[in-house]
Amino acid sequence: MDIEDILDPGAIAQRVSAADKRQALSIAAEIAGRQFGLKPSTVLNALLRRETQGSTGVGHGVAIPHARVRGLDRIHGIFVRLEAPVDFGADDQKPVDLLFALLGPPDAEVGHLTALAKVSRIFRSTELRNQLRYASGADAIRALLFQTARPTAA
Fold it and tell me: 41-72 burial, b if ≥16 CB within 10 A, otherwise e?
């Protein structure tokens, strides 16, 4: 599974304003509603339920909210870049401005974990995080994520 397989072109939002974590997750849910034909409230509730188990803020200003949602036939990703960071309860106490939400069908246990691991690895790169913060548009964001996700030739 590659990032290209899960991040649809219309599932990228940049320079979005959110007052808090709930509103940031709501933005991801609205995108899921438009892109994947889901009820935004269903997606938001699933993401919020997952947050009660522990913050999906992974540090360095990044969150990877994820949930399983009925109505999907595969795993989908949503990238959101916030204008101003919001508190996500990350272990490093840094507010979040980069979100990569993962949504999958209820029965996608292995695929969901594989996608989560891949996205987590990608966002470990300080250089990528900085480039994403200054990328000029959705196409540039997609290119950065796809380039970083590709294995390098030995």
Answer: ebbbebbbebbeeebbbbebbbbbbbbbbeeb
